Amino acid sequence: MDGWTSLSGALSVTEELIHHYSESVQLPQFGYMSSLYITLNASDLKWFPIFLRSIPNLKSLILVMERTGSSHQLSPKAIKRVSISSVPECLLSSLEFVEFKAPICGLAPEMMLVWYFLENSPTLKKLTLRLKSHSTKDDFVKKLLKIPRCSTECEVIFL
């Protein structure tokens, strides 16, 4: 069990390193990577587009959003800053499938990511969302319909 704690600490350090070095040095490119499974929390959103720049041929992305106390503290201005900070090459040219593995309940970071992918990826074919409950589906769909889509072929699937 101690190994997992160390891994968590290593991931936190890795996040800081990615953010720090991306400001002065280009991150290594993972040109052969076409699929990614990643767990994010609200604080990761600031470096997520920077990280995606290093995966130019990404086709399939599976996301798990962790819910932490900071999930509710992300302001609309912070969401806008993160979402328009950059659009990596993979979103523009290769990303076809995005799946949210954990149920979504409409928190600001989750909505920001859904918005980010729909508005910025012309190659997106399928966005799969799991909703926390059926009662939130109507509200979520209303929010979703307000998001401009870059892809005319994107199908949004609710599980």
Automatic annotation (TrEMBL):
Pfam families: FBD
InterPro entries from the UniProt entry: FBD, FBL13/AtMIF1-like
Domain FBD positions: 89-159
Domain of life: Eukaryota
PANTHER family: F-BOX/RNI SUPERFAMILY PROTEIN-RELATED (PTHR31900), FBD DOMAIN-CONTAINING PROTEIN (PTHR31900:SF25)
Name the record gives this protein: FBD domain-containing protein
